[in-house]
Amino acid sequence: MKAAVWYGEKDLRIEDRDLKPMKADEVKVRVAWAGICGSDLHEYQEGPVFIPVDKEDELTGEVAPLIMGHEFAGVIEEIGSEVTKYKVGDRVAINPTLTHGNLPEALDTYDGFSFIGLHGDGGFTKFANAPEKQVYKLPESLSLQDGALVEPMAVAVQAVKESEMLFGDTVAVFGAGPIGLLTIIAAKAAGASKIIVLDLSANRLEKALELGATHAVNSGEVDGVKAVRDIVPGGVDVTFEVAGVAPTFKASIDATRARGTVVIVSIFARPIEWNPIHLTNTGVKLTSTIAYTPTTFQQTVDLMGTGQLKPQGIVTSKIVLDDIVAKGFEALTTDKIQAKILVELSGEK
Fold this sequence. Notes:
Layout: E1 2-8, E2 11-16, E3 26-35, H1 38-46, E4 66-67, E5 71-79, E6 91-94, E7 97-99, H2 105-108, E8 113-115, E9 127-131, E10 135-137, H3 144-147, H4 150-163, E11 170-174, H5 178-189, E12 194-199, H6 202-210, E13 215-218, H7 224-231, E14 236-241, H8 246-254, E15 256-264, H9 277-282, E16 285-288, H10 294-306, E17 315-320, H11 324-334, E18 340-344
Parallel strand pairs: 11-12, 11-14, 12-13, 14-15, 15-16, 17-18
Antiparallel strand pairs: 1-2, 1-4, 3-5, 3-9, 3-18, 5-6, 6-10, 7-8
Helix pairs in contact: 4-5, 4-10
C-alpha cells in the first residue's frame, strides 16, 4: 500500500509498504483522512525529535523508517479476535497516544509514552492498525474529516484543563498556528471573557479572530506584553505558550498577572536560556502539557459531536497523499496562510 514514510530530516518518501500483521487486540482501520500535525512538521524540518532512529521504541518495538501520521480517522475494516467493543464498518477516530497503563491516567502519559505515527507506523497510508483501547467511535453528527481533527482538538482541551481557568477569566495565546487556534476555540468554549492572540502573521491573526479571539496583536509590529497589559491591566489570568521559542516563552510570563498561570503547550525544537528567577520575581505559576488523557479524548469527541467545539474552521487545505511533501510539509513551512492541512486517503465522509 502507498504510504508517506519518514527516513530523516527533509526525507519523507511516498513508497509502497506492507501493513504489519494485526494483533488479536487490534483493529484494522481503512484511513479516510489524516491531518499534518505541528510535531510532524518538527520531525520533517529538524527531526528526529520523537521518532526512534537508533533503537526500537520501548512501547511499539519499532524504529525508523516508519509511516507518519497520528491525526486520523476512518472505517474499521477488520477486528482482532479479542476485540469486543467495535465491529466492521464502525466510523472511528484514533487516539494515537500509547502508554504503559500502570498509573492513573493523569500521570500515565508521563510514565513513558509513544505515538502511533511517530514511534510506530501511523495513518498516512491506506490501512493502519490500532489497539482497541485507542479507538473511539464517532457520533453520526461528525464526518470522518471531523474525526481527523479530534486529536489536535484534544491537545487544546487538555491544555485548557491544565490551566484550571475559570469562567470569565482573561486569556492570552502566544502563537496562532494550528494548536494555538484550537486553544482559542477551547478557551472560548470554557468561558474565557477575553482571548488575546499574538503572532507575527497577519493572516493567522485574522483566522484567530474568525475562530473566537477577541483581540489580535501583531507582536512583530508592537510590544506584545505591553499590548496585552493595555487590554487587561495587571496581566491576564492564563497564558498559553504555543510558539515554542525563547521570546514568546519569556513574554508569556510577563503578560500574566501575579499568581496567574502559564501553560507550555508547544514543542521546543531546541534549548533556550532562561533564569527561573523570572517566576520568583513575578509570582507567575508555570505548568505544561503533553497530549491528553483518554478521558479528555472522549470528552473532545463528545463536545465536537454536540457542536460545543467546532474546530472545522482551522482547515485551510485538503491534499492527496502524493502531494504530501510539496503541498503539505513544504507549504506549512513557507506559507503562513496555512493552518491545518488534511490528507485525503479513502476520502470517505
